[in-house]
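Appendix B, example 12.
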Amino acid sequence: MSALQDEGTVSHRSSSVDALATVRGVLAQRAEEPGALLPILHDVQDALGYVPADAVPEIAAALNLSRAEVHGVLTYYHHFRAEPAARHVVQICRAEACQAMGAEALLAHAQQHLGCAVHGDSKDGAFTLEPVYCLGLCASSPAMMLDDEPHARITPRVFDALMAQARSES
């Protein structure tokens, strides 16, 4: 094994150990709460940016659930990620009001502009594109979130400007 490969392996192990330490900290705080699974998953994702696969057995054991039950919740909700997102997360609303005001065309534009499909990352690794279902901005649709900041009345031109601004701030 080369020194670079060895360094990458050590780095991966240490990040995995750090992630599990974070998961165990969340479990220590929340495992005894009634209905703790969703709050735990949210806390882990908030802390790490995703829910690592090796956290599933830890969470299951702490809550006396099967790994399949935890995995089922993780995969049911679109909010949870199994892999880290890119530097910026773009979420485009796909609820009815936004669809009526052009969200499908906006999503197609976003996919073309970023060069990725939904649940994918842009070619430059700067953006993750995700669908969401109702951002609560129905009267100002189509709507999107960029890094947890809502934006309304999004046109392709406004979208492009927001992406350029996010790139320049990175």
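The beta strands are 88-93, 120-121, 127-132, 144-146, 149-151. The CA atoms of residues 163 and 169 lie 10 Å apart.
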